[in-house]
Design brief:
The protein is globular, with a radius of gyration of 19 Å. The chain is built from six helices and seven strands. It has 135 residues and is an alpha+beta fold. It has two domains: 87 residues, no CATH class; 38 residues, no CATH class.
Length: 135
């Protein structure tokens, strides 16, 4: 399992130097209507994009995967000491443990997918769930 997390106050509307291109880019949140997307609303989802300052309007948006963009940023020129991106990788043999703790903190199928399918997921999860032996 892999999860990316960001610190919005550390990255939005700040310029970062990209190592390979030698250009500056800014990372912006992209607002989309949540009312029409119940999953996005329930998951408190967020979309982000990177815009390069030295490109023409047609090529201004950096379409590379965000992990490539993150790896291309020269953080020595950033104006923050705090990490901007966190990448969590959880071994599959620890998934039961993580899912159990998430459920105990109110994150499960019914909260992530607020429809009948999500309710069914939560019931299945509860039937299969037991206190795992966590490392």
């Amino acid at each position: 399992m892999s999860v990316w997390a960001i610190q919005p106050e550390n990255i939005f509307n700040k310029s970062f130097l990209c190592k390979e291109e030698g250009s500056y880019c800014k990372i912006y949140p992209v607002t989309v209507p949540r009312a029409a997307n119940p999953n996005l609303h329930a998951q408190d989802g967020l979309f982000i994009m990177c815009s390069r300052n030295n490109e023409s309007a047609l090529n201004k948006v950096d379409r590379r995967p965000m992990d490539e963009i993150v790896n291309s940023i020269d953080y020595t020129h950033s104006n923050t000491d705090a990490p901007m991106f966190y990448h969590f990788t959880i071994p599959s043999n620890e998934a039961d443990c993580v899912l159990w703790y998430l459920d105990k903190n109110g994150v499960n199928g019914s909260t992530l997918y607020p429809n009948f399918d999500g309710s069914a997921r939560a019931v299945r999860e509860e039937l299969l769930q037991r206190m795992p032996e966590c490392p």
